[in-house]
Amino acid sequence: MRLSTVILPIDRWREGGRDTWRRAEELGFHAAYTYDHLSWRTFRDGPWFGAVPTLTAAAAATERIRLGTLVTSPNFRHPVTLAKELISLDDISGGRVTLGIGAGGTGFDATALGQEPWTPRQRADRFGEFVPLLDRLLTEDTVSYEGDFYAAHEARDIPGCVQRPRLPFAVAATGPRGMRLAARYGQAWVTTGDPKLYENGTPEQSVHALRGQVERLAEACAEIGRDVTGPEKILLTGFTPDRGRPLESLDAFVDFAGRHAELGFTELVLHWPIPDSDFAADQKTFERIAMEAPTQLG
Questions:
Q1: Which among 68, 179, 205, 246 is placed 20 to 30 Å from 263, CA to CA?
Q2: Contact in structure between 31 and 100 (CB atoms under 8 Å)
């Protein structure tokens, strides 16, 4: 079981941003991710910086910790331009980048470019084209493609990724089409649990729902002859009925982590504490969890 953190891009780099990413590395986190949005939920009217420039700065400020997005989506990204940015970021970081990628949602990103929000089916259709094209762009020197939603004309991505054949994808999915993409293209699979349980569900119901998701991933892997142990299984915490309770003490977290390790999860991602927000937590307890929980989890 690996522990990682997600750092929301809300601090100016020279006024705390750089120090947070460096501290994440000092604490021994496996990876530090950030959200790839133009703005997000209750943080919409406050500072919010771009994911790729933030990760580029983090790559220059750190040496060992993996870096990535949780998650990038087609809402305002195009595979051709995204591939060029990812190859550059992978080079700057020395091959430490993981791309978390999902179908997107109906939040602010869905309309920021002036478009109408896509339906769930439209998002799934675009995602189903976005991921395979991005896979090609990151593994082939030159790509031409004409699809229903995306096109590439002799798009060149030389020299390619430092990581070969490309940087890893962590595919966020819960539905059948997304699970099939995760099984085929993902080096990891990401979930936040069942959103329907967040308000009124119980931790026990959440564990049951997550078990079902893991089983559906296994079925998608079996369809293409892939061993379900192949993709890593990542839980982005904070969106299950447990909410912030696992961060109240080391014992509470170890109990939470143990229950999810039994389901097959290999990585838990914790939100870096933000005072006066849904991600408020005691910083000292958070850091103790980062340093001591991995030993207890084995």
A1: 68
A2: no
> Which pLDDT value is given to residue 160?
98
C-beta pairs of 21-27 under 8 Å, 24+ apart in sequence: 21/57, 21/58, 21/61, 21/62, 21/65, 22/61, 22/62, 24/62, 24/65, 24/272, 25/62, 25/63, 25/64, 25/65, 27/287, 27/290, 27/291
- pLDDT given for residue 228 in this prediction: 86
Q: Are 206 and 242 in contact (CB under 8 A)?
A: yes
DSSP state of 278: T
Please state at what angle helix 120-139 crosses helix 176-185, rounded to 10 degrees. Answer: 10
- Position 205: which residue type? Q
> For 171-189, what is the mean pLDDT?
97
The kind and range of the H/E element at 286 are: helix 283-297
* Nearby residues of 120 by Cβ (< 8 Å), 6 or more positions away: none
For the entire predicted model, the pTM comes to: 0.97
Q: Do residues 55 and 95 touch, judged by C-beta distance below 8 A?
A: no
Nearest-angstrom CA–CA distance, 97 and 65: 9
Both structure tokens of 230: 């192949």
Long-range contacts, stretch 136-142, CB < 8 angstroms, 24+ apart: 137/79, 137/80, 137/83, 138/83, 138/86, 138/87, 138/165, 138/166, 138/167, 139/165, 139/166
> What pLDDT shows up at residue 298?
76
Q: Where are the beta strands (DSSP E) in the chain?
A: 2-6, 31-34, 66-72, 97-101, 142-146, 151-156, 169-172, 188-191, 232-236, 267-271
Beta-carbon contacts of 116 under 8 Å, excluding residues fewer than 6 positions away, are none
Is the peptide bond preceding residue 71 cis, with omega within 30 degrees of 0?
yes
CA atoms within 13 A on the CB side of 120: 6
Residue 107 has a pLDDT of 87
Answer yes or no: are the C-beta atoms of 257 and 268 closer than 8 Å: yes
